[in-house]
Amino acid sequence: MKDNFSEQATRYAQYRPTYPAALVEKLASLAPARQAAWDCGTGNGQLAILLSDYFDWVIATDISQKQLAEAPQRSNITYLIEPAEHTSAPDAAFDLITVAQAIHWFDFEKFYREVNRVLRPEGVLAVIGYGLCRISTKINPIIDNFYTHVVGSYWDPERRYLDEEYKTIPFPYKEIVISGSYLIQYDWSLSTFTNYLRTWSAVRHFQQVNQYDPVVGLEATLVAFWGEGVQKVEFPLLLRVGILKDI
């Protein structure tokens, strides 16, 4: 499991999108019980805090101590520095396991072996993510060019799983389709949006190699299209949900 985000943990906590509460409620309703959930690769706990409204006990793990330091605290959440592929949890401990915007960094085979060990029978695994944001017909091509041509060569190879909408990840579970529309949507100023872009791992890699911030030039281009107010920024939700049966 890679750690691309410790160096920008504070900005990540401030500017990364979170997940629809309605989706978390739906996932909780699919779990065989609501005793315990594991949020794996929790980062700064964006999903863990939502899960804590539905489960008696939430274990949230990550390999980044700096990310966990930014996570919100609640009495029924325990944060642990542990890799996805090996947790200290006992066998059949969890009713629900979630992975939000992180599974592409995991060793799939080892992670699924751990899922099979710690997930209860009929327990649910939910892989969640979001793709490249959409804003407007004028702004989208500018963002696409930045994503593909400016920082494109600086993405880690694992990024392709997000580009492929998580459809190509191994997923050895009885899959269920979640009905309903779940949106990740914000009204953002240009400053907020460009700070979000600075959380991209490719932007960080670009800065390390070239010793300047590529977002500065992009921001100058976007000013004419963004205006003084806010723009609606939407992120396409990616979702794979499965149940632990005979696999």
CATH architectural group: 3-Layer(aba) Sandwich
CATH topology: Rossmann fold
Total of domains: 1
Shape: globular
Q: How is this structure best summarized?
A:
With 247 residues, the chain is of the alpha/beta class. The protein has ten helices and nine strands.
Write a structural description.
The structure is a single chain. The protein has one domain (6-243): Rossmann fold, CATH 3.40.50.150. The protein is 34% helix and 22% strand. By secondary structure, it is α/β, with parallel strands linked by helices. The longest helix is centred in the C-terminal third of the chain and has 12 residues, at 215-226. Helix 4 (65-69) links the parallel strand 2 (57-62) and strand 3 (77-81). It contains ten helices and nine strands. A seven-stranded mixed beta sheet has the order 3-2-1-4-5-9-6, with helices on both faces. It has a two-stranded antiparallel sheet with strand order 7-8. The protein is globular and about 55 Å long. The protein has helices at 9-15, 21-30, 46-51, 65-69, 108-118, 140-150, 160-163, 190-197, 201-210, 215-226; strands at residues 36-40, 57-62, 77-81, 94-100, 119-130, 174-176, 184-188, 231-235, 237-243.
